[in-house]
Write a structure and sequence with these properties.
By secondary structure, the chain is mainly alpha-helical. The protein is built from 23 helices and 8 strands. It is globular and about 80 Å long. It is found in: Cell membrane.
């Protein structure tokens, strides 16, 4: 898993998410304002600041760049695996803990999220820390001091979850606890949470930023808590709705190569042990409740399901310790099928040679790992078999991600942005007409003036309308005035917008062109 840090720089920052969060961190570092989060210089309150803080710290220590923008997620992904290993060992035994760590370190979604600059892994890891601390604290043989210590870790992790993504950092763990108390019969857990010391610690960590940002920006609380939580969950205005089975279908590739054993792992947790803490039941409730919660939501994105994977890995690790040979061999067969399908696709699909070679490598890694796992399991070497599956699953994901780079490079417009950068001064206006290209702003290291565009910047532009231009007519007037004075200016736009403005006789020429956008300059 540590090798994941060595490949953080393989891909260009893919818009919109990777470019957006990298740019927010860059602006935070350069402005020195660690309270009011901004995107393109515009107030941006959709999410709390933990991810932006950590990326800005990465930039401060290592410089501004692609791998530095992803470093927080890379480190967080490794931390999640280590937490699962330690917790699995403490709760289910050493072998189950090792298996659980191998499982999580090779799950497609977990590996992919560790390489992707977005908020979802941060909240998954902080929630997993809360879950793991709770599991350790509630063990039947825990001393009073151990229970208090680990519950304080749990409360602190929930506070970080709140700062990572918002109210789900406390709503989801809280819902799981209530359901666990009701379904397991272990009502005593509610008295073992050390609320008297845990809640003050939670507030001490989570509350200061919310108070400070609200003091400086009185409009922030209503937008954050109503629009970004209540409306996102119950309304469809974010246009991210999907069918109720959205996450169940997505779980199939997301938990590869372990999906074949996942249902049995969750089902095995149903056995109750009266009078005792029941970690397996709590883990199963965690998985099911989170999936049901987001399935009911009107806003669905793949990353929302990431918090289930540490819990799923713990249950799978527990199950693998006692699984039959046939079950372990079935995992190898499934991976071989995936490798074979990928091999056929890579051999016969048209495309760039470099992409085809990477996909071939990913498919061969899957086939090699499947073969090694089969041979090891047949000889009774369960740990070697699981390690083979894990290594091949990790390599399969990494090589597949690397194969997306030609697409990502074209989507990001990084080459054009970097080429333009030396021509810009702090006073050179760069307009973004009809769209906002998230990654280009980061690669130019220069904010743009949005034209006839609001979308996710709508709320910030309502507060500071002078930071954008609402209409094409106003932009054209400003462009013509500066062109008449012979002063340099640039605009980013899609080809359709360029054709429209040419028809309206705007004096401009194509300065650079990419797969999706153009950069134009004054004549």
């Amino acid at each position: 898993m540590v090798a994941s840090l060595l490949v953080l720089n393989v891909r260009t920052l893919l818009p919109p998410d990777e470019g957006r969060y990298a740019e927010m961190a860059r602006e935070m570092l350069l402005s020195g304002d660690w309270i009011t989060t901004r995107l393109n210089g515009i107030k941006y309150f959709e999410k709390p600041p933990l991810h932006t803080w950590m990326s800005a710290l990465s930039f401060a220590v290592f410089g501004i760049g692609d791998w530095q923008a992803r470093l927080w997620n890379g480190v967080a992904g490794i931390f999640g695996v280590l937490m699962v290993a330690y917790t699995g060992t403490r709760v289910f035994g050493g072998r189950a803990g090792a298996y659980a760590a191998m499982v999580l370190a090779s799950m497609v979604f977990w590996v992919g999220a560790s390489q992707f600059n977005s908020l979802d892994l941060g909240v998954a890891v902080t929630m997993a820390a809360a879950l793991c601390a709770l599991l350790i604290a509630q063990q039947d043989d825990a001393t009073v001091a151990q229970r208090r210590c680990w519950m304080l870790v749990c409360w602190a992790a929930m506070a970080l979850s709140l700062l990572a993504k918002g109210l789900i950092g406390i709503v989801l763990p809280g819902g799981v606890l209530v359901l666990y108390a009701l379904l397991s019969g272990d009502r005593g857990i509610l008295r073992r949470l050390h609320i008297g010391v845990g809640l003050p610690l939670f507030l001490l960590i989570a509350l200061p930023w919310f108070l400070l940002v609200a003091a400086r920006n009185p409009e922030q609380p209503a937008f954050f808590f109503i629009h970004e939580h209540w409306d996102r969950f119950f309304l469809k205005e974010h246009h991210r709705e999907g069918p109720w089975y959205y996450f169940l279908v997505l779980l199939l590739p997301a938990a590869t190569p372990w999906i074949a054993i996942a249902p049995a792992s969750v089902a095995a947790a149903r056995h109750r042990l009266p009078g005792r803490f029941q970690p397996a039941i709590l883990l199963a409730i965690w998985i099911i409740f989170i999936l049901v919660f987001f399935s009911y939501s009107s806003s669905k994105l793949p990353g929302y399901m990431l918090p289930v994977f540490p819990a799923l890995a713990l249950l799978i690790g527990r199950q693998l310790e006692s699984a039959s040979r046939d079950t372990a061999l079935a995992l190898a067969v499934l991976l071989a099928v995936i490798g074979t399908a990928g091999l056929c696709g890579a051999l016969f699909a048209p495309g760039v040679d470099s992409v085809r070679h990477l996909l071939l490598g990913a498919s061969l890694a899957a086939l090699l790992g499947a073969g090694m796992a089969w041979a090891a399991e047949w000889r009774g070497m369960r740990t070697a078999a699981i390690l083979s599956l894990a290594c091949s699953g990790w390599a399969l994901t990494q090589l597949s991600l690397a194969a997306t780079e030609p697409y990502g490079r074209g989507e990001a417009g990084a080459a054009m942005a970097k080429a333009l950068r030396p021509e810009l001064t702090p006073s050179t206006p760069v307009y973004s007409v009809g769209a906002y290209e998230q990654s280009m702003t980061f690669y130019m290291a220069h904010k743009v003036i949005t034209v006839a565009y609001t979308d996710e910047l709508a709320f910030g532009l309502q507060q500071e309308p002078q930071l954008g231009i609402p209409t094409l007519e106003e932009f054209m007037a400003r462009w013509r005035a500066r062109a008449a004075q012979g002063q340099p200016q640039y605009a980013i736009m899609r080809p359709a917008m360029y054709r429209e403005l040419r028809q309206r006789q705007l004096p401009m020429r194509v300065h650079a062109s990419g797969e999706r956008v153009l950069i134009v300059a004054s004549l």
